[in-house]
Every structure is written in C-alpha cells, then in structure tokens.
Specification:
There is one protein chain. The protein is built from 11 helices and 15 strands. The chain is an alpha/beta fold and about 475 residues long. Strand 14 and strand 15 form a beta hairpin. The N and C termini lie far apart (about 80 Å). The N terminus and C terminus are likely disordered.
Length: about 475
C-alpha cells in the first residue's frame, strides 16, 4: 500500500474548492446580462399611441413593444416637466430629495448652486459602468450645462445631442449639438441623426452589454413636421395635429429602426427595453385622453404617461399591469437585471419591477407615489389621489378608478381619507430638500401661466 502524502487532503480540498469556484463563475458568466435600452418621448400625450387608444396616428413600433412585453395602465413620472423627470430617472430617487423641482435652465442670484443634477447623486450610467457596461446618451440631456455636469462627466462613455432644451431647440439656430464635450455641426434633421448615431453605437457593441439612452427631441413643440412623414397625414386636421402626427410617426419609425438593428445583430432577446414619455402632453395638438390637465400640472394629465417594458424570453408577451409604477423604477430594475446588488445606502425610491414584469409577484411595487412641483403637490395610494393643483387651491381628493378625469372632489365627503393622504405626503416631504431654484410657472396655471411668465433665461452650453 502506498502511503498517502500528508498534503494530499489539503490539495484535494483546494482542488475541489477551485473547481466549485470555477463552476460558480462560469454559471454566473453564462447568466445573460441584458443590454438596457431606454426610449423617452418628450411631452407625448397619454393617449397618443395605438395601444393607449390613439386612432388617428399609427404607432406600430411602440405598439410592437407592448405586444411583446408589458404595458402599464397606471404609470407615472415623478416630474410634470422635462428636467425633473430626467433627474429622477437617472438617480432612481425622487428628485425632490435633492431639491430638483424645476427645469435646469437659466441661472438666478438666489439659486443654490448651478441648475444641474447634484454631483452627489450617482447616475444610472455610473452604476451600470461599475457593472462593466458601455454607456451612451443620444439626444436630450437637460441636467446641466456647466463644466463637471456634462453627460460624459456623469457616467456616459458617449454623448451625442444637446444640453439644455430652450425654445426652438430643433431649429438651425437652436442650442449647439455636442459629441462628447465638443460642438459639432447641427444636423438638418435631429431625429434622423439621433437614429444614425444609435445604430452605429449598436454596431460597435458586440462584446459587452450596453446602456443606450435615447431621450428624443420629439414630440416637444414647436412641432417640426418633417417629410416624408408629414405627407402621410395630409388629411389630418387641425393643422397643428398634422405636424404633431408627423413628429410622432418619425419617432415611432426611429424606434422601429433601432429595434430592427438589435434584431439583426441577435441582440433583441438580450435587451431590456423601456419606453415612456417624460411627462404628459402639453395641450394643443397632444391628447391626454380622459385625464385632466397637461404638462406643468400635477393633475394626472401632467404625470400619467404611456409606459412599456420588453425583454423577450424573460418578460411574458402581451401582459397588461394595472399597478401604479413610476419612472424612478427604471434604475433599480435595470441594476437587478444586470446582476447588480441594490444597496440600502443608495436610498433609492424606485422599486425593482422584474418580479412584476415577469408575473412572479402580484403585489403592488409601491404603497404610495408622491409628487412635488414647487407649490403643487400630490400623493397617490391605491385608487386614491390627493392633489394640490394650484398655489391658491386647497388639496382635492379623487378616486382615480371611478373618476380618472379628477372631476369629483371628495375631500369634504371623505375628510379622514384626505387627512391620511396628507399625513403620508407630509412625512415624505419632511425628508426632502427645499427647491434649489424657483420657477413661478409651477403656481398651477399650466400653459396659460407660461404665456404671461417672463421669457426663459438663456443658457449657453459650456464647452
């Protein structure tokens, strides 16, 4: 009998440990980490795509996302105007936590710091980069134009687009277009160039997962009405609706081309795709359906948006979910899908929607949702919503299932319920920072107040 070497058991144990580690590593490596693709429409009406009831403007590519994924019927954004929603999306936190109530445009003597996303806030791009993702933003940033606050300084490897919005952003003399931190030529058609940039980015990314964030210029006014899409709606009236339809159809077409490129590269099944609008329609040619109010208000018409998620092979196709969700859920959902660990010290307000998307959980992702837009505020819990819609208005109470148009104020009939929701909002707001800058257009008059408000301060992007 050959005597056993005394080191043999230890060598065997080490070998087994290494084998188990390697098996675990390869199993983990084999677990797919999806690409994250986020399409964000700008000022799109709640009822302006086919799956949400639109009859006069075909949106086959948005509808296809819903057909192959999940459509939410009670989805919201944490802001009723552009910048605050984007701040919430990028951080997974209510933007009121760090005083970002109003658009990041202009500068006033009383502002607390620049009108930009607080540098203490970690962005979705930064969190995904830490997980090995390549990150790109193509389109509208609107979260700061000062040095240190630019997209490539906030986690994006690539940026092509514009920084603030400003009136006439899509005009030839609109704000500069950047590639990274350099000003480049202004394209003849912004949306077409955004599409070209997105397709080229996808073509370059074959070896590691990526984040492709596409916050479109469409369908924000003033409407462009590009050809050949405008000619397709020659019979549509009134004329502003026709130009809006052309902008919306072009956006839908761009979404279709991006999805087709993912499909052609064999990446569609490996991609978690989101589509939503940054806030409700602004009135005029946009349609918010049965909802009251528009952009600039905390009526549901300002914050209740179309919201769709697709991940073929992971999310069952064609599902409709009625639970209230909000765009701050995108970050934790993306991190969970990427295999990352969501840490308590991040203090996220968003929920991981994967159990809901996959049909593994019937529980609502949130107990309540909250809003603050300067002097306006709102809270929704279950079917009930309390909203202070105007600086001079008392809070009003509505049952959104029975009254989606928020017409019958029940505050006097159900004072206990109103007090309960007010207490919820007060407790939430106690943990928020006061607004860092002021925009009196948040007083609650919506588009009417904008006409009487002073012109926007013009911000020149920093080079």
């Amino acid at each position: 009998m050959v005597p056993m070497n005394r080191r043999s058991p230890f060598r065997l144990l080490a070998w087994l440990s290494a084998a188990l580690w390697f098996a675990g590593f390869t199993a983990q490596a084999a677990e797919p980490r999806p690409n994250i693709v986020i399409f964000v429409a700008d000022d799109m009406g709640f009822q302006d795509c086919g799956v949400y009831g639109c009859k006069d403007i075909p949106t086959p590519n948005i509808d296809s996302l819903a057909k192959h994924g999940v459509r939410f019927t009670h989805a919201y954004t944490s802001g009723c105007v552009c910048s605050p929603t984007r701040a919430g999306l990028m951080t997974g936190r209510y933007q009121q936590r760090f005083g970002f109530d109003a658009n990041a445009e202009g500068q006033a003597a009383g502002d607390k710091g620049p009108r930009a996303l607080d540098l203490q806030q970690v962005t979705l791009a930064q969190r995904l980069k830490a997980l090995g993702y390549t990150t790109a933003l193509i389109g509208k940033w609107h979260l700061g134009a000062s040095p240190g606050y630019l997209p490539t300084q906030r986690g994006f490897d690539e940026f092509y687009g514009y920084l603030p919005f400003g009136i006439g952003a899509m005009a030839p003399d609109g704000p500069p277009i950047y590639r990274g931190t350099n000003v480049v030529a202004t394209p003849k058609n912004h949306m077409e160039q955004f599409c070209t940039e997105a397709l080229a980015f996808i073509d370059r990314q074959q070896k590691q997962p990526f984040l492709l964030y596409l916050p479109f210029s469409a369908v924000h006014g003033p409407m462009v009405g590009p050809e050949p899409w405008l000619s397709k709606f020659s019979a549509l009236t009134p004329p502003p609706r026709r130009k809006y339809a052309a902008d919306l159809a072009q956006m839908d077409d761009v979404i279709g081309r991006v999805m087709a490129r993912l499909r052609a590269r064999g990446l569609e099944g490996d991609s978690l795709v989101f589509f939503f609008s940054d806030n409700g329609g602004s009135g005029g040619p946009t349609r918010n359906g049965p909802l009251r109010g528009t952009k600039w208000t905390l009526w549901d018409g300002g914050i209740h948006v179309p919201f769709i998620a697709q991940w073929q092979g992971r999310i069952p196709a064609g599902r409709i979910v009625d639970h209230p969700v909000i765009q701050v859920d995108v970050l934790p959902t993306a991190i969970a899908a990427a295999g990352g660990q969501i840490k308590p010290e991040w203090k996220l307000d968003g929920a991981n929607l994967l159990p809901c998307l996959e049909g593994k959980s019937a529980a609502p992702p949130h107990d309540a949702l909250y809003w603050r837009f300067g002097v306006q505020y709102a809270v929704r819990q279950g079917d009930w919503k309390l909203v202070k819609p105007h600086i001079n208005s008392e809070p009003k109470l509505f049952n959104l299932i029975q009254d989606p148009g928020e017409q019958a104020d029940l505050a006097s009939k159900s004072p206990d319920h109103a007090r309960k929701l007010q207490a919820l909002w007060d407790a939430w707001n106690a943990n928020n920072e006061p607004p860092r800058w002021v925009d009196k257009r948040w007083n609650g008059d919506g588009p009417a107040a904008k006409k009487a408000a002073p012109a926007r301060l013009k911000t020149q992007p920093s080079k």
